[in-house]
Design a protein that fits this description.
301 residues, four-stranded mixed sheet
Length: 301
């Protein structure tokens, strides 16, 4: 019998990883499946593809195939070493045995999975549909309160419920909303990765949230009680006297309400009033005259 190069059939290198082999198989079987392909040899091609994947898609079969076919090229007369079959658990493979029987044993010995799952050997062909991965962009407050969104996927509209407490990068799984299966196989799933809409006031790190809070120079210098809007609603906080620009006020447990809630950090931004009016200029001039203040002193200026 002639040696069959299953790697060539699937169009992958011999060093290909399992996921590369699976990806190549899915692509080819969709291309040549008799239900959709106009290729004149679609049936034979599909059988060959399934036969190749039934071997290369199984780690144990692949290892045996690699050992059995080492050194052979496509089309060469295949003749396994003496006693190879008995050494590897394949019956009837002694000296003088038909090499075709041995090669067939390799494909049949380990469970004949193709007859019930992938259609090798004339069985019913069934294949699960591929999963679909997409992103869904939401606002930060949606992570605090939960939300419902409507999205369009593959010519259909889906309602998506986003539970509170999720974090950016987490995925929502919608079972059976992926691509349709073949031969009665189940549909794949839809995986939606949660992403946040940009917001200049907030930054998220894990379950912690950082919010920029503008304060006046006198609020920072003298201290003050202020109201701050947050994703969970307004809160009253105290700005300690002598606060500098960039100071963080920690509100424990006020971050994203995950299983272990994060913290909310209010980052103070001291904002200077404009000196566009005459009165404002007078006040700035008085400060310059009366306050002995050199902000560059700490850098040696």
């Amino acid at each position: 019998m002639e040696y069959k190069d299953y790697y060539k059939v699937l169009g992958v290198e011999r060093s290909a990883k399992a996921d590369e082999i699976k990806k190549a198989y899915r692509k080819l079987v969709r291309q040549y499946h008799p239900d959709v392909s106009k290729h004149k040899d679609a049936d034979a091609k599909t059988k060959e593809i399934n036969e190749a994947y039934d071997v290369l898609g199984d780690a144990e079969k692949r290892a045996a195939y690699d050992e059995l076919g080492r050194g052979y090229r496509p089309g060469q007369e295949f003749r396994p070493p003496p006693d190879w079959g008995s050494q590897h658990g394949f019956g009837g493979a002694g000296e003088g045995a038909d090499p075709g029987d041995i090669f067939a044993d390799l494909f049949a010995h380990m469970g004949r999975r193709g007859r019930t799952g992938r259609g090798m050997g004339g069985g019913t062909f069934r294949m699960a549909g591929e999963d679909i991965r997409a992103t869904i962009a939401i606002d930060l407050r949606d992570l605090y309160q939960g939300a419902t969104r409507t999205i369009g996927v593959r010519d259909k509209t889906l309602s998506v419920t986003i539970p509170k407490g999720m974090t950016p990068g987490q995925q929502l799984r919608m079972k059976g909303q992926g691509r349709e299966g073949m031969g009665g196989g189940p549909a794949g799933d839809l995986y939606l990765e949660v992403q946040l809409n940009p917001d200049p006031h907030y930054r998220v790190e894990g379950t912690d949230v950082y919010e920029n809070v503008p304060v006046t120079p006198w609020e920072a210098a003298l201290g003050a009680g202020i109201s701050v809007p947050t994703p969970a609603g307004p809160v009253e906080v105290t700005v300690p006297a002598g606060s500098q620009n960039g100071r963080k006020l920690r509100l424990k447990g006020r971050g994203i309400p995950a299983a272990q809630p994060g913290d909310l950090y209010l980052v103070l931004e001291v904002v200077l009033p404009s000196a566009s009016s005459e009165r404002a200029r007078e006040l700035y001039e008085a400060m310059a005259r009366d306050l002995a203040f050199n902000p560059r002193e700490r850098i040696g200026a």
